[in-house]
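Progress report, Aim 2. The chain analyzed during this reporting quarter is listed below.
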Amino acid sequence: MVKVNYWQLIKSHAYANPKLNQSAKLDYYAQELLVSHGCVDPFDAERYCTKNIKLIRNKFAQQIDEDKKRGVTPPLMLDSTYNCLWYPENQGQEAVWKYRKSVLNKLVLLDDDSFEALCCYTLECIGGKSYKTKSKSDGGVDGYGILLSPMDNHIFGVEKHLKIVGQFKNYDHQEVITKFDSFIQTINNVRYMSSRVTGGMPSFFSSAKGPIIGWYVCKSGFQKQIYDQAKWHGIILSDLVDLVEVLCNIKIYPFGNQETKLLLKVFSSIKSYS
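Predicted structure tokens for the chain:
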């Protein structure tokens, strides 16, 4: 019998289920996530949340700190007791809490090719130019890009003229260290213009000046040891939550249903890469 990780269920569903401009008791909210979205028996959910309420609060507090450090809107905020809060501090946070549920729920269903297109589109939303490679000649690179006039963003900051080498994995599990190691060699192949990668490299990338940065995106995140490796080799790591953070703040025409228009814009842009 597989043991259920209740905390992971609570954490994963919290990102897609905010209660904008509301508050809620932490134990009731955690139970709701487990029962309504995690398909956990109500009795088991209540027993777990009642017994582990301090653990749940500490885990959320830690997650909030980690999200703030990487520039992502947390799933919720906490007061000094055991209440969850969703009162936005700025327009960006409001947009994420308003749209993240619908955007996440749609994007998590993408196939591999569309996920690669999504990553390239996100790069363009930040203020860059991107190119999605063809699988037979990519040499281990899923996308190339250049940051031209980037908006202030939590992934690359506001640096201009960065040359981005992308690896995009649509996995339902965390990326493992052995697969990540091969990307380090791929970046070196790009730096030294190896014949393994030049066949799929766009001319705007090969002719541009600027430092080369690796961008590794895995939908479900990474094993812990990968983060140290990424720091040593100058590689930026992102997951689906990072991408959605950018997409929720796209400028769209300010009339009509904003959520629907945002989704239409994202999916029409993804199709343009096929």
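Strands lie at 23-25, 77-78, 83-85, 128-132, 143-147, 163-169, 212-218, 235-238. The chain has a mean pLDDT of 92. These observations will guide the mutagenesis work planned for the next reporting period.
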